[in-house]
Specification:
The complex is a heterodimer of chains A (117) and B (107).
Chain A: E1 5-7, E2 10-13, E3 19-24, E4 31-37, E5 44-50, E6 53-56, E7 65-68, E8 75-79, E9 88-95, E10 107-108, E11 112-116
Chain B: E1 4-7, E2 10-14, E3 19-25, E4 31-37, E5 43-49, E6 52-56, E7 59-64, E8 69-74, E9 83-91, E10 94-97, E11 101-106
Parallel strand pairs in B: 2-11
Antiparallel strand pairs in B: 1-3, 3-8, 4-5, 4-9, 6-7, 7-8, 9-10, 9-11
The chains are: A mainly beta (117), B mainly beta (107).
Chain lengths: 117, 107
């Protein structure tokens, strides 16, 4: 597609429920990033994929968070046993280059707004 | 202390005014991004720069690597410029984000 597509756009989950957030990056983009943006804050890095390999997951806040990109294209961020503090916008971004060089930019999705009630 | 600091946090101005948003960072970087986020919308990359100055239309971004400081300027501001403007610095492959500046341009 022409841009990075994320779904669903909005998700309301009951506390304790598992959720799965999807990111469709631009076709051919090697790098894929997930960010978490709490209300009024800048995005925080969660994890980074180069193709199907998850090279950095240091930003995942707990073992309830799991991300995968099995075929090196679509990625899913899964949150198990959701808590209220998980409420945030989850942003996905992709970039053509592996370990994007300074001349490469990022293309961002519109995000998924997760509200845990 | 945050690694990326933006100022001001909030800015309200009248249509036509010249706008300046500042970004200071404390880490070594390979590039700096200015991004725009509309309410309920996604993030649009405005500029990526590693030195000097870039201009797109009414937007100008400058960076001083020695001083670890960047500015985003908007000339002849318009209500449609109302958004959150975010500075993010690139270290290796990660972006480290500022908290954003909420800009409101009144007609």
């Amino acid at each position: 597609g022409a841009g990075v597509s994320q779904s669903p756009r909005y998700k309301v989950a009951k506390r304790g429920q598992d959720v799965a957030l999807r990111c469709d990056p631009i076709s051919g983009h090697v790098s894929l990033f997930w960010y978490q943006q709490a209300l009024g804050q800048g995005p925080e890095f969660l994890t980074y994929f180069q193709n199907e390999a998850q090279l950095d997951k240091s930003g995942l806040p707990s073992d309830r968070f799991f991300a995968e990109r099995p075929e090196g294209s679509v990625s899913t961020l899964k949150i198990q046993r959701t808590q209220q503090e998980d409420s945030a916008v989850y942003l996905c971004a992709s970039s053509l280059a592996p370990r994007p060089l300074k001349t490469e930019g990022y293309t961002f999705g519109s995000g998924t707004r997760l509200t845990v009630v | 202390k945050n690694e990326v600091e933006q100022s001001p946090q909030n800015l309200t101005a009248q249509e036509g005014e010249f706008i300046t948003i500042n970004c200071s960072y404390s880490v070594g970087i390979s590039a700096l991004h200015w991004l725009q986020q509309h309410p309920g919308g996604g993030i649009v990359s405005l500029f990526m720069l590693s030195s000097g100055k870039k201009k797109h239309g009414r937007l100008i971004a400058t960076i001083n690597i020695q001083e670890k400081h960047s500015s985003l300027h908007i000339t002849a501001s318009h209500p449609r410029d109302s958004a959150v403007y975010i500075c993010a610095v690139k270290r290796n492959y990660q972006l480290i984000w500022g908290a954003g500046t909420k800009l409101i341009i009144k007609p």
